[in-house]
Amino acid sequence: MGRLHEYQVIGRRLPSEQEPAPKLFRMRIFAPNEVVAKSRYWYFLSKLHKAKRANGEIVSVNEIYESNPLKVKNFGVWLRYDSRSGTHNMYKEYRETTRAAAVEACYQDMAARHRARFSSVQIIRVGTVKAADVRRPYIQQLIQPNLKFPLPHRVQRPAKKADRALIIAQRPSTFY
Questions:
Q1: What global pTM score does this model have?
Q2: CB under 8 Å, gap of 24 or more: what pairs does 112-118 form?
Q3: Who's near 114: CB < 8 A, 6+ residues apart?
Q4: What are phi and psi of 29, to 5 degrees?
């Protein structure tokens, strides 16, 4: 199980005289636990709409599970991140079994390649990508139907330790 989970957080502004039935806002948040998911929800909601934690409430928090977690899928991740020079939009592709694992790989990739911290990366959208629609060559090379991984350096070993000689007259044959 990965470090990140996917949560569905639904919240709204508190009811008032002007707005007795406020509009509900739903977000899918990737976070390690529910507390962080709620915190990220208010962070994004305050940027998108005029709402904050002091005058709002969270209606429900549900964890979203992958419907088919044993099948490997191609995921596209649309994100935005703050670098040292500015804010950039980005699209990346990952080959994982779950959406949460793809987002976790994205955070690791952004930290490695761009030195972007968790707080400076904002996941905009995550979606599955069909094999025909894959754009990145490092993912395209993995979806070929006759993909093989050769084992180039294999040393034959005897079945029993008693059959093993301490010194052998020729070098081992490591190819087939």
A1: 0.82
A2: 114/81, 114/83, 116/81, 116/82, 116/83
A3: 81, 83
A4: -115, 135
